[in-house]
Design a protein that fits this description.
Mean pLDDT is 93; it is low at 636-654. The protein has 654 residues and is an alpha/beta fold. The protein has a seven-stranded mixed beta sheet, with helices on both faces. The chain has a six-stranded parallel beta sheet with strand order 6-5-4-7-8-9, with helices on both faces. The longest helix has 18 residues, at 300-317. Helices cover 34% and strands 15% of the residues. The chain is elongated, with a radius of gyration of 29 Å. Strand 18, helix 18 (505-508) and strand 19 form a beta-alpha-beta unit.
């Protein structure tokens, strides 16, 4: 492919190269291709050169999920549309997308299930071509007719014969066909940001007509609309996905397939498609998608997951954070997680008020939160190494209700578990694949230790030690708060079993309290330092107060008995001997896949240690498998050693 413009944009160059296109400069021959950007003003040069040399034209456009903000803001695209036949928005000749829609069977069950899942995820997470908006921003009261504006001189507008008069005609028909209804004109994001003019202005907002230029969710607007009018906007495609049959005045790719009311019918498009079939072709089969964390081409779902993570981080962090109760060693990792939009400010609660007045949100480390701060805590796929050894985390959780280890009050995790007890097929498949990956890779929270020793034969029960002054014990295990009591109760209930005692790594390292004198009084074997992922494959049961190991055991099909009330207790998946909150016992009964989706996919935030970008749990699992993870620097290692000497003064560094 010969095109000079693509050499200046690194991600475009990588995507094209990985898609099989070798970029070069010079005069093309008949066997070459000339790459042009859609029907941009510069495309005419490539078209003229192709006519002169006999080279073929390849037209390239942004994919339908692009970035947080318009490309004119400098953000690279998440995917490309590489078309040998035409361009998707110009119906003067069929594009590769139109050929797909017209001729591909689009009847494969797995493909259509992927499409339904993708549609649901886009709507659930309020994802659009440009997703830099607040989904919670208010929209007008429902019951309006929605008209979608587009930018002046846009190539897709020209291809549909659009101009100011055509848009005024659309406004006329919207009013005529909906007598008495409110008319809402949605301004294009580039127009609202002052980048390009639109076709409607304040002079058109008369009587029952009003403008909406706010950065609001297209999905929220579509939910409140009783009818949708568009020339050729991508939002017309999203209107179809949202259940509308939009009135279309141009010839976009989604017109002519029985899903729209077409003002300008195209006779060659006579096939009737379902929404899932349209989505499958336009979002799964046609685009070339890119994973920015792995820096490689990927399936649609991987790109969607990356976009979900990026969008979530921007939306949660865009106002900036003021953080309290954060030790010095934690601040750099926190800045990496939450300081992407505005650098975090670290201040104690007494001085945080002025920063909140500036619009910043207030977070505190969960164990030190005292008021209405958002609580932050380590996630469940944390690192390869201990937090007490100052190894930075790969995942963190934000909780605006409580915190997952405190059963005395609801947490955001608990709300996610009770809110999604029945997963969609795509959610279930993702959870099951993640479980399979974690168990096959032996991945756990800390991912350290040596292979377990040879173990006695028999019914093996792993008894999991914890840090006895840990907040999860103090809040979640009122009836059993010592490791010795845990061991004693496990032995009393299982006199014939082989009991394996595993002290907590922080306790073994001398960093926290919880050592048991003479554990051989109850345990047959002490497996200090053994890798948890490998050890769980060797046991039939786990006994614990509130340890995350109980959750990791459930992933592996191991029976779990709890003496406290960890987040995974009370849902019917464990035998609970502790005081589990009544609200869990009387609520929905999620299965393991639903528990995993809430706990590992929906609740935490993940940060890729290689690219520094927000990412999915699947990327973190891959980094842990490959060992591509951060390690504490020299200052942290020295401080960690000092902690071992000051274990009784852990409040200094925790």
């Amino acid at each position: 492919m010969r095109s000079a413009g693509f050499f200046t944009q690194g991600r475009l160059r990588r995507m094209l190269a990985q898609a099989g296109w070798r970029l070069s400069l010079g005069t093309p021959g008949p066997e070459d291709h000339i790459g042009v950007w859609g029907q941009s003003p510069y495309a005419a040069r490539g078209e003229a050169l192709a006519a002169k040399t006999g080279a073929q034209i390849i037209r390239i456009e942004d994919a339908f999920l692009r970035s947080l903000h318009p490309g004119r803001k400098g953000e690279p695209p998440l995917g490309l549309l590489i078309d040998r036949s035409g361009v998707h928005f110009d119906a003067s000749q069929p594009s590769d997308l139109e050929v797909l829609l017209a001729t591909h069977p689009l009847d494969d069950h797995a493909l259509l299930e992927r499409a339904r899942g993708g549609m649901a995820r886009m709507q659930e997470h309020h994802l659009s071509k440009y997703s830099g908006f607040d989904p919670g921003a208010p929209v007008p009261e429902p019951g309006y007719v929605l008209i979608i504006d587009q930018t002046q001189r846009d190539a897709s507008v020209r291809a549909s014969g659009g101009d100011r008069n055509r848009f005024l005609e659309m406004l006329y028909w919207a009013q005529d066909e909906n007598p008495g209804a409110r008319i809402l004109i949605k301004t294009h994001p580039e127009t609202a940001q002052g980048l390009r003019g639109g076709h409607y202005g304040p002079e058109d907002a008369q009587g029952r007509v009003s403008l909406c230029a706010d950065a609001v969710s297209p999905w929220a607007l579509l939910e409140g609309a009783v009818a949708v009018y568009t020339l050729s906007s991508q939002m017309g495609f999203e209107a179809i996905l949202a259940g509308h049959r939009p009135r279309v005045f141009g010839t976009p790719f989604y017109a002519g397939w029985g899903l729209t009311q077409d003002e300008a019918p195209l006779p060659r498009r006579g096939r009737s498609l379902t929404r899932a079939q349209l989505f499958a072709a336009a979002m799964i089969l046609y685009p070339t998608w890119y994973d920015p964390c792995r820096a490689q081409l990927c399936p649609f779902e991987d790109a969607l997951g990356a976009f979900e993570a990026q969008t979530r981080a921007w939306r949660e962090d865009r106002q900036g954070w003021v953080a309290s109760g954060m030790r010095l060693w934690k601040r750099r990792p926190l800045q990496g997680f939450f300081g992407g939009q505005k650098a975090m400010v670290f201040a104690e609660s007494a001085t945080a008020d002025k920063h909140r007045e500036e619009g910043r949100r207030h977070m505190a480390w969960a164990g030190k939160a005292s008021g209405k701060e958002v609580r932050v805590e380590d996630g469940f796929l944390r690192s390869r190494g201990l937090g007490a050894e100052l190894v930075p985390p790969l995942s963190l959780v934000l909780d605006d209700l409580g915190i997952y280890y405190d059963p005395t009050r609801p947490s955001r995790l608990e709300a996610l578990i009770t809110g999604t007890p029945d997963l969609r097929p795509d959610q279930r498949l993702r959870s099951e694949k993640l479980i399979e990956r974690l168990t096959a890779g032996g991945l756990t929270k800390y991912n350290l230790g040596t292979p377990p020793p040879a173990l006695p034969e028999g019914h093996r029960i792993l008894v999991v030690g914890q840090v006895e002054d840990d907040a999860s014990i103090l809040r979640g295990s009122p009836d059993c708060r010592s490791n010795a009591d845990l061991l004693a109760r496990a032995r009393a209930a299982n006199p014939e079993a082989v009991l394996l005692w595993k002290p907590h790594p922080d306790v073994s390292a001398g960093l926290r309290q919880g050592a048991v004198e003479a554990p051989e009084r109850w345990a047959d074997v002490t497996v200090e330092g053994a890798d948890m992922g490998a050890l769980l494959r060797e046991v039939q049961e786990v006994w614990t107060m509130t340890s995350l190991t109980g959750f990791e055991a459930l992933l592996r099909g191991v029976k779990v008995t709890t003496l406290g009330a960890p987040f995974y207790a009370g849902w019917g998946l464990t035998r609970d001997l502790g005081p589990v909150p009544a609200r869990r016992l009387s609520g929905p009964r999620p299965d393991l896949a639903a528990l995993v989706h809430a706990t590992l996919i929906a609740y935490p935030r993940y940060r890729d240690p290689v690219s520094g970008l927000p990412c999915t749990p699947e990327v973190i699992a891959e980094r842990l498998e490959q060992g591509t993870i951060p390690h504490p620097g020299l200052p942290n290692r020295l401080l960690s050693k000092l902690q071992g000497l000051l274990a009784s003064q852990a409040h200094i560094w925790r």
